[in-house]
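User: I'm preparing a small set of examples for a lab meeting where we compare how different chains pack in three dimensions. I only have the primary sequence for this one, and I'd like the structure in token form so I can line it up with the others. Please keep the answer compact; I'll paste it straight into my notes.
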Amino acid sequence: MSSNRNIGLGTAAIGRPQYINIKQEALQPFDLGTFKQQGFAMLDYAYAEGIRYFDTAPGYGLAEQLLIEWLSKQTDPTITLATKWGYTYVANFDPSAKVHEVKTHTLEKLNEQWKISKQLLPFLKYYQIHSATFETGVFENQVVLERLFQIKKENNVKVGLTTTGSNQKEVLKKALEVHYEGAPLFEVFQCTYNILDQSILSLGKEIILEGRQLVLKEVLANGRLFPNLNYPNYAAMYQRLEGLSEKYEVGIDAVIFQFCMKTLDGAVILSGANKTEHLKQNLKATNFQLSPEEIEELSQYKKLPKVYWEERKQLPWN
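Assistant: Understood. Below is the structure token output for the 318-residue chain.
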């Protein structure tokens, strides 16, 4: 199987039993041992299908530990690992937990999580601030920025960040201004991007042109892009997606992945699949080409970031 450079695997769903999403299936009883084995099987399948980019974080339950164990048996130098720091998983695999993760952008948290994350070396290529925002003050925290620069130099990794929320574009602009020793500190940017939220489009193209790495997450809008009765306001979009799905004989997810590939060529698109059949469907995005007219038509369904993120806030953990 040839390497698939366009699509990577995000491991949140194989590291913890709950995520912000529209759940379409009945909840199954949770068993940690079974869950862990399913995670290893998913990593094996993704690798066999040509995926070489894997994204993880300490905030994703046992995902980082899964990858540390899985990589101990790997020798392929083309595997690229990205992890993050700043979120701590606190739900302890309890599906009824009220709080799942806590964000802390301090030097203490960075050092604490780096001690574990560095076990991903030498496969670890990208080390990111998890959900960088203005509110946490991380861009003004010089000791944190200095420590990230030190990690970058000493371990030959690229430093980056992930963005979330209605002001992703503003956060990216701020990050692009940060320099150390005459060079940009941040070289990888993982952002929410999909048919509904295209706010980073122009800036994303610039990042790619500058030779930095852009990674796209939540491309399925946490399930909102699949036809469902919760969003009658998206009826026209659902109808069009279903039409394209039938035309190209692929799932709606593959149509959406193809849209992201076409509009931000050069970005890595993360699949958040935790089942092999779902990943298999995602990968069909590389088997066909949407026309420029179809891309333009889908582009028209974008929403204002504020509207998109207000809607997302209403989604439960499932």
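A couple of notes for your slides: The two ends are 33 Å apart (CA to CA). The mean pLDDT is 92.

User: Perfect, thanks.
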